Amino acid sequence: MRSTSFRRFFGLLGWLLLVPGALMAVAASWLLATGLHIVGDTHSAKGRVVAHESAVAGPAHRQAHGKKSVVEFVAKDGRTVRFTDSLVRRLQAVHDVGDAVTVRYPAHNPSLAEISGSTTLKVFMGALGLLFGAVGMAAGWLLLRLRPRAPA
Fold first, then answer.
1. Which pLDDT score is estimated for 131?
2. Which residues pair with 47 in a beta bridge?
3. Across the beta sheet with 80-84, what order do the strands follow?
């Protein structure tokens, strides 16, 4: 009787670690692939910060006010593209208007561009998520593998 409840506990705990770990690893892989621009053809260009947009980030109980940089650059096909970076920056991290920045964008759609520093954060978060996902999967697999055997 005691062995059965112990076995069920290890089984449940194993699945509770294995499944979210696998989902985390898949999401982190997607984040890494988009951050490194592995999927599709990617170009880089020099751009200039032309303005800022006020933005609010964070949960409702702890909102932080910051700024998103509006950047203008010339794509490889010669057209001028203006975009708003997806990352909300605060204090010293805000680019000054007129600052030169490196821009990375998918060749098929330059309007999806990002400031290169934003992609660095994506890559870091993706790698960290992949690491934690792998640890969760390994711990869940071990718990499932090492749980006591059912009596014969």
1. 92
2. 73, 101
3. 80-84, 64-74, 42-57, 100-106, 114-115
